[in-house]
Amino acid sequence: MTLAFPIGIRLLPTLNGSNTVRTFRYKIFILIFTFLCYTSYHLSRKPISVVKSVLNRNCSDPDVVDDHHNHGNNTKWCDWKPFDENNAGSLLGSLDLAYLFAYAVGMFFSGHIAERMNLRYFLSLGMISSGLMTVLFGMGYFWNIHSLFFFIGVQIIGGLVQSSGWPSVVTCMGNWYGKGKRGFIMGIWNSHTSVGNILGSLIAGIFVNTAWGWSFIVPGIIIGSLGILVFLFMVPNPAEIGCDLPDQSSAAKYAANEVSEKSDLNTESYREYGAANTSQTSLISMTKEKPISLLKALRIPGVIEFSLCLFFAKLVSYTFLFWLPKYIHVKANYDPEKAADISTLFDVGGIFGGITAGLLSDFTGMRASTCVLMLAISAPVLYIYNLYGSLSLAHSIGLSMVCGFFVNGPYALITTAVSADLGTHEILKGNSKALSTVTAIIDGTGSIGAAVGPLFAGVIESSGWNNVFFMLIGSDIMALLLLLRLVYKEISAYFRS
Question: What are the residue boundaries of the structural domains of the chain, listed by start?
Answer without folding.
Answer: 8-55+83-496
